[in-house]
Please model this.
Amino acid sequence: MKINRFLLKFSVIILIFFAVVTSCTKDDHGPVYSYFVSKEFSVTYTKTYITNLINTVSGSFPEVNNLKTLVAGDINIYRMVYKTTVNGHQINASGLVCVPAIPGDYPVLSFQNGTNTVNAYAPSEFAINYSYQFVEIIASMGYIVVIADYPGFGESAQVTHPYLVKEPTVQSLIDMLYAVKELTNSELPGITLKNEYSLLGYSQGGWATLALHKALELGYKDEFNLKGSACGAGPYDLFLLLQGMVNVTTYPMPVYLGYILNAYKAYDQFTNPVSDIFNEPYASRLSSLYTGLLTSDQINSQLTSSIPGLITPDFLSGFTTSPKYASVRDALNNNSVSAWHSYKPLLLIHGGKDTQVNPVSTENMYTQMIQAGTSPDLCKKVIVPGVDHGDGVVPCMVQGILFLMNLNDSN
Model:
């Protein structure tokens, strides 16, 4: 009996010990996340540095001076890894999260960047890139700024970038917003996330921003309170974009044509072989050009600006009507952003002399949004006179930033 009592007491002690150890182990692991994987500190910008940066840029673009009085303090920038789904497979993706150094409750601004072909130039790989700094410093104006790499760059460099492929692009952006919610809940002491989201983007990023705006407004309104968006020079109608590229004798940026063709083939967007669209030797070398190692200029040098030299005669004559290219037309239409009746503020802005993405893309989208029922009081259009695609980045984005900040001030 004494032995049995001793064994019973010993067993109870052992069970209590293991219960305590197990409990401690679970606590040590911290919270369980659905999207957030990790964060890594990248860099701090002081208020003085940010002010000096604005002064430097304003030498070429005086309108940037309008942002100087909005700078409130230092910011910290982190590289974040998060989970998303591409082609039915879960992968780790990455991007930058920029937060004010001053504790507080902040809204989110998600920036979608333009065309990039080099992994080393992706936001999370090159946070101090001068171009990204101009976006990162918006955090000093009272935002948590999010800049996704997009699938195919950074942590997900092993997958093909879904260039102008809507579903994986939008899904990766939404999943990053979910990850930022989890990040601010427990990983950034003193920083909390206000349920207010603004969107900003240019070129490919303008297209991605409008697609994300539509997705958040129509499918995620209970999770994300969208304040409004500013979309710059986006190729919203991809069939129109392709027509503009191939209905000329020469096109100066064949890298874009190749990028679309490479991505659409990799993501099974159409059924035609590449050789139906590109002449040799360009059809055969296409897949070796978009590996994250070559710049746009280097890719351009491996293609040709001559449209008859690059594109097959059959495609040039038949891509708009021939049944042979029906899947190409369907792919372009499916990945375009169609107009809808929006109830959220939207700025569509474009350079009037854009030779890479025709400003008619913005003109048409504005008209179609109004025809779909969107109020002209909510949807605004600005055509910046005299600027081409590259020259339009700063003036369009400054107007976009001020448009979004005015939305916050008005509420």
In short: The first strand starts at residue 36 and ends at 45. Confidence is low (pLDDT under 50) at residues 10-27.
